[in-house]
Amino acid sequence: MSQVWYSVLVGLVAAERLAELVVAKRNLAWSLARGGLETGFAHYPFMVVLHTGLLAGCLAEVWLADRDFVPLLGWPMLALVVLSQALRWWCIRVLGRQWNTRIVVVPDLPRVTGGPYRLFPHPNYVAVVVEGFALPLVHDAWLTALVFTVLNAALLTVRIRAENDALRSLDV
After folding, report:
1. CB atoms closer than 10 angstroms to residue 161
2. In DSSP terms, which residues pair with 104 in a beta bridge?
3. How far apart are alpha carbons 168 and 1 in whole angstroms?
4. Each residue's pLDDT tens digit, 25-35
5. pLDDT per residue over 82-129, tens digit each?
6. Contact, 124 vs 88, CB < 8 A?
7. Chain-centre distance for alpha carbon 30
8. Torsions phi, psi of 105, nearest 5?
9. For labelling alongside 75, which of 21, 28, 33, 41 has CA 20 to 30 A away?
10. How would you write the chain as a 3-class SS string?
């Protein structure tokens, strides 16, 4: 896979992220119109910067460090990127209007426990973690994979705690 094709892949992932933001914005308006309460917003700007940095880092490292495509690593990582996207969109589909990039709880809506949520509590974050190391490693951008994974682990510690606190309000 040449650097150009890898850049196209990263561009496609960026386009997917923009599509997520369109869905999230629409769902946020829907949730707020129904009395939804946003929590955990202090870490959201850091999340946006980190995820943007992942995409930029993938491109910068591959182009500036002249990383090679290593087929034995690259093809399995590409498969994981595709699978992480499938899991993410399964989460979005199952949560429907309740899915968002922000933490928003709408009073009187039941907690979603079907689809991937019946398997584990935060499947979307599984997709984020897998994509975060797999996308850079498609083209051997190991430094980007390492930095994103470490920073994302710290972010997810805060994010999951805030989300669990918000979800507990549904269980009351």
Report:
1. 12
2. 38
3. 46
4. 999 999 999 99
5. 999 999 999 999 999 999 999 999 998 988 999 999 998 899 999 999
6. yes
7. 21
8. -115, 130
9. 21
10. CCHHHHHHHHHHHHHHHHHHHHHHHHHHHHHHHCCCEEECHHHHHHHHHHHHHHHHHHHHHHHHCCCCCCHHHHHHHHHHHHHHHHHHHHHHHHHHHHCCCCEEECCCCCCCCCHHHHCCCCHHHHHHHHHHHHHHHCCCCHHHHHHHHHHHHHHHHHHHHHHHHHHHHHHC
Place of tokens 């629409």: 26
Ramachandran sector of residue 66 (left: φ over 0; alpha: ψ -120 to 50; beta: rest): left
Phi/psi of residue 94, nearest 5 degrees: -70, -40
Closest CA to 9 of 79, 73, 65, 67: 79
* Cβ atoms of residues 31 and 97 within 8 Å: yes
> What is the model's pTM?
0.93
Could you tell me the two tokens for 2? 């040449």
Question: How many Å apart are CA 88 and CA 136, to the nearest integer?
Answer: 18
